[in-house]
Design goal:
The protein has 218 residues and is mainly beta. The chain contains one helix and ten strands, in the order ββββββββββα.
Length: 218
């Protein structure tokens, strides 16, 4: 029997939070804590190196923003548009993400620890060489997501659409994929040691047969 993965530790957030002036957030290398940020437009902003902790971030407009080297700790992010976000080398610790659009977001070399992502749109998102520890993706749309070279040994994908996702050179021993759509995934051999449950047996056999160059005759 595969070992059950531990659930991510939830964020620690105070009941009473400050509501900042939106203009104070549009600065790179800023340090913020114990905030409730709602309906702030920061598209295309340079927020590299920003640090946010103990905060709720709701309905943000961060499409095409640059969060290179940013750090989020003990945060909840909800109902936001972060399409094509640049988050290279970002660090996320005890972060909940719910209902966020992250189409094409770049998490290259990122470090995710105790992160829960629910009902997010992650098509074409890039996690190349990222390290993910105690991370759960639940009910997420992730076609063509790229996990090349990523460490996903502590990841649970639950009811996610991973069609045509790429796992080449990933480290996946101990990862779990439960009731996921896996049509056309790449780098199948790198999923050695992962546990796959609830997938359609016919579709799964076609995925592995294709990886091995085997034609299934009708």
């Amino acid at each position: 029997m595969p070992t059950t993965l531990p659930s991510p530790t939830p964020p620690k957030i105070q009941a009473r939070l400050d509501r900042p002036d939106a203009s104070t957030l549009a600065e790179p290398d800023g340090h913020y804590q114990n905030l409730h940020v709602d309906r702030v437009a920061l598209e295309h902003c340079d927020l590299a190196g920003i640090e946010v902790s103990g905060s709720r971030l709701d309905r943000l407009e961060l499409a095409h923003a640059d969060l290179t080297g940013a750090s989020l700790r003990d945060c909840r992010v909800a109902r936001s548009d972060m399409a094509n976000l640049t988050a290279r080398s970002v660090g996320l610790t005890r972060v909940d993400v719910h209902g966020v659009r992250l189409t094409g977001a770049q998490f290259i070399d990122a470090r995710l620890r105790d992160v829960t992502v629910v009902e997010a749109k992650l098509d074409l998102a890039v996690f190349r060489f990222a390290k993910l520890h105690r991370v759960e993706f639940r009910d997420c749309t992730m076609p063509k997501a790229d996990f090349t070279g990523a460490d996903i040994r502590g990841v649970h994908f639950f009811r996610c659409d991973l069609s045509a996702a790429q796992f080449s050179q990933a480290m996946a021993d101990g990862a779990r994929l439960t009731e996921c759509w896996l049509d056309g995934i790449g780098g199948v051999s790198s999923l050695r040691g992962a546990a796959i449950a609830g997938a359609d047996p016919t579709a799964l056999s076609q995925v592995f047969a294709g990886a091995l160059g085997i034609e299934i005759a009708g």
